[in-house]
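SAMPLE LOG
Freezer: B-3
Tube label: C17
Construct: single chain, 725 aa
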Amino acid sequence: MGGSSKTSAPSSQYVDLSPWSYAWWWFILLAVHLITGGYNAAFALFYYELKDTYLYRTLEYSRIGMLAKDHPTITVVNALMASMHGGCALLMVGGSLWRRELVFSLVAPENGENSSTRTKVQAFDDRVSSRLESMKRHTSQVYSRVWGRRGFLGVNGRSFHAILLGRELLETLLQTIQAYRMSWYLPRMLLNRFYLFLLVLNCWSSVFIYSLLKRDEARKRFYCLVSDCIIDLVSSIGIPLIVVISYIGDYDSELKGFQLEYWYDDVWSARVLNEFQMVLVVSWSDLISRTVFSIGLIATTTNLKELLRKVPVKGSKRRVSAADNAMTFNKSKKMEVIHQIRSTVRLTREPSKLVKVGSGNYTGTGLRTRREQNLLFLAHIVFGAWGVVVLGLHIQASVQPELPQCALQVRPWAVTEPACYLAILDCYHLGISDKKAEVQAKWSEFDRSTVVTLAIRHCTALEVPDSIADFHLTTGIKLYNSTIYEWGASAAVTNTNHPALIWLYFVRVHLPDGRLPEGIMSTDFPTNLYDLEFTYTNVREVPDDLDTKWLIGTTVYFEYSELTSIPSVILRLDPYSISFTGSPITELSPEVFEVPDLVYMYLGSIPIQDLPPDVTNLSPALGYLYLTDTNVSFFWSWIDPLVEKTLGWPRAPLLMGGSKYCAELEKITRGESTTFSVPPLPGYSILMDASEENRDTVLHTANCDMENAVPVYPIDLEDRVSALQ
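STRUCTURE (predicted):
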């Protein structure tokens, strides 16, 4: 290793380094603690604040990660990991400042002699009799036996190989699980191959190192520990950090989440649904795995610190001397102690009768029996074979063919069919005629149970086959620019077959006779499907029993449909949000504004002249009413409770851009008029009072920006992404 200083005899206990090399490794180990501790601290802060953000609402809706009730535990665990790494870094920096040289701790390093020898030396000091000194000596003794470099957990302890193998076995198992999950969730082949390369190299490292370095036991241990440190670092923070960095540009810090339109992008949303499984804590076992990697880093770096030793550049020798730490003795006792020390050191340096295993590569390990050396040799062979198996699984997965209908293809291990989590059936580009047999043939080319998002585009007479029931993990289905010829009950989306389904979008879709297909109205409706959006469709009627099939509290949008009124069955669904933007609705019933749990109401670009006068029980949950591009010019007094409860809100509750009301309000604000066309008489809202005293209330309540005069569904984005090129 570059920078090492040569001594008269190779050390079996230390890796001797020149001052420059020692400083280099000091800064590397400090950086490991700072990076890992900083990541854990940031992760703890992230989970501490997550539950109150828009990001959490979208993640919870998409079923990604653990629920808010579990966040305190995740926060505490990561804070503990951060404090442990911070403590290690503090010991390095504090010890170096205290001793005015680069060291790894406040405690002076051991010089290689048995710690029990130093205890014997100190035992001769009959002047040390106080209880404080006795406790100090006892604590030091316990520390040396457990954490000292020759202690139970020490790098030169008798249990080093057993502990290292146990740790490697656990970590390699968890790293293999992580590599397997990456093969399912990450379509980034370069990142998958990089991590697999590290995993396989770590499995093979012991075999290579013990074959190449022969008898230099200190360097064997050093390189094994470095290999462990690298894979632990990448496992604990490397993979999540790489994924997160790719989404930083999309994050809106003011919104504390991602803009809504991103979630309508098939590729982006499908990536997030999968890749965030590798970033967020998704289970208790996942949290334990991350903790093991973080603690493994501390254990590995601690052993590395015990191995490294700085020696002068000019070849000065490092001698073992117990007198360095001994107290002043009278001459007779001092000579007696020195004699005992020399005897002990001599015994420890006597060559052991070791059995050669693996061409002598295991004779310097400190293992004294054939059984122990054979077990170590066998363990290294097992790890090497493990690496071969993992590499074979990856190669088998990599040779799966690429399919045009798999827009985002993953390569999970040990599967017989290609897997993709974004499947796009583009009838035009695939050159199929939309018949059941052809659709079925294209879907049968990949494993349908792996698909997260299913999109169907540019089909002129789509017949949906029964095999749609095989999309068990699918969270969303989108039809774009297509005509549905047949989607019968036998091919219906059901809770039995689609338990993960959370959204269903029809965009620029033509339906037979303007009616909803039987395939989306099963009595076994998916219990998580709360988002149904129909934008630019020819829907002109809905069944009266829809409230017995669709979920109560759902979000329902019929934007730019052919509905001439808002069906009462939709109101009986007690929706959370409704939109009839752009539909030819000329009149609104009072019941529309009395839905108990309705929060968002989008009624822009519909040909109404005014609002109903006799709303008696305005929805207490109503927060936002969109009346953009309408002829509404005044409000009745029933709207005042909404005005009053939202005065302290940061956003205006009435979105009126392009309406007659806003046209009159703009004239008033410009000084061209002093009143609305409808005077503030009894029965009318306070929003009709244009006086200076009431002007702030009016301006806070009504937002006249034209940017809100668009459908909820981002149709422009969809057309850019999905339209025929």
